[in-house]
Automatic annotation (TrEMBL):
Residues 27-248 form the Aminoglycoside phosphotransferase domain. It holds the Pfam family APH. This is Phosphotransferase family protein. Signal peptide: none annotated. It comes from Tropicibacter oceani. PANTHER family: HAD FAMILY PHOSPHATASE, HYDROLASE, PUTATIVE (AFU_ORTHOLOGUE AFUA_1G12880)-RELATED.
Length: 340
């Protein structure tokens, strides 16, 4: 962040953030492809600034105002979130909308196999993932003022139309498996079962901060894709992630001896979640996992397009991530029957 921008942010915070004292020192977080995020150190404490990226953006993407609203609404709930301070909608300050929140001290796990942990702590951390996910889906929409946080109607029909449109808007080359997956998802849409909850939209272990030295979740981060919708979308997103290769790139659990590592099987994690929410089980779960792969492929295609257009936070990484789109489409086709 340029010094003039940083001074403008400090001036703005002095007017809008209670107790703030400058000057500011900014450090950019390299993680994340979507909304540029900075750690702000000051005499009054440590904050985090998240802003929209510059340039021409897809409609409804990078909704930092929605991120701010949902996290502010969840303060004091069973869902751990960082404390929100203020939202700046005046683009003249930095060139794009941003918000300020507390910096939460905690540890994050890029790799869900958590190689440094013991089987006992791995099991406890994944159980905490299930607990927090169930808590998100059990949020009282009336009490939190979030009843209008998403449009009415069938979530999957809405999401399917949205992500096909987003994918087409950022398409660079035809991908045969992506077309087959889109066709299958459209033809096999499940009937709307009436479940309508808060959904995170990108729920995975690397979007969570855990207590230093402990297994409790201190904050769920990256609410950009949150809305009101179907809870199985978040659950299937977790299972989708675990089908990928382990390590800092794939961030999955493919090929790992889960029982020996203290990690649950896919079906065990789904059963944990269902028990927490009082559900008997989930029919046709393969559809939801296949959809999760399709949606992530569409997101990665958007990342690739932003990198090609020069609007990505990290262009080199953006192009690399975009290269995974065909593989996600292939895994989506495989998932149709493997998780039912």
């Amino acid at each position: 962040m340029q010094s003039a921008q940083l001074e403008a942010v400090a001036d703005w915070m002095a007017r809008h953030v209670a107790g703030f004292q400058g000057p500011l020192r900014a450090t950019k977080f390299e993680v994340g492809q979507s909304n540029p995020t900075f750690r702000l150190d000051s005499p009054s404490g440590t904050y985090v600034l998240r802003r929209k990226p510059p340039g021409v953006l897809l409609k409804s993407a990078h909704a930092v105002d929605r991120e701010y609203r949902v996290q502010k609404a969840l303060a004091g709930s069973a869902v751990p979130v960082a404390r929100m301070h203020a939202l700046c909608e005046d683009e003249a300050v930095t060139g794009s909308m941003f918000y300020i929140m507390d910096h939460v001290e905690g540890r994050s796990f890029v790799d869900p196999s958590m190689p440094e942990e013991t089987p006992q702590t791995r099991a406890a951390i994944i159980a905490e993932m299930a607990r927090v996910l169930a808590a998100i889906h059990d949020v009282d929409l009336d009490a939190t003022g979030l009843t209008d946080f998403g449009p009415p109607g069938s979530y999957y029909e809405r999401q399917f139309a949205r992500w096909v449109k987003q994918y087409r808007a950022s398409e660079t080359d035809p991908i045969k498996d992506m077309e087959a997956l889109i066709d299958w998802l459209g033809a096999n849409m499940p009937a709307d079962d009436g479940q309508r909850t808060l959904v995170h939209g990108d729920y995975r272990i690397d979007n969570m901060l855990f207590a230093p030295g402990g297994t409790g979740c201190r904050a769920v981060l990256d609410w950009e894709l949150s809305t009101l919708g179907h809870p199985y979308a978040d659950l299937a997103g977790v299972i989708m992630q675990w089908q990928l290769p382990p390590g800092s790139e794939g961030r999955g659990l493919a090929g790992i001896d889960r029982a020996g590592a203290g990690l649950p099987s896919d079906s065990d994690f789904v059963a944990q979640y269902c028990a927490l929410r009082g559900l008997p089980g989930i029919d046709n779960f393969g559809y939801y996992v296949a959809f999760a792969f399709f949606r992530m492929a569409a997101i990665l295609q958007g990342v690739k397009k932003r990198a090609l257009d020069g609007n990505a936070a990290n262009p080199e990484k953006g192009l690399k991530l975009g290269g995974f789109v065909p593989r996600f489409a292939e895994l989506g086709l495989e998932a149709r029957h493997s998780h039912g």
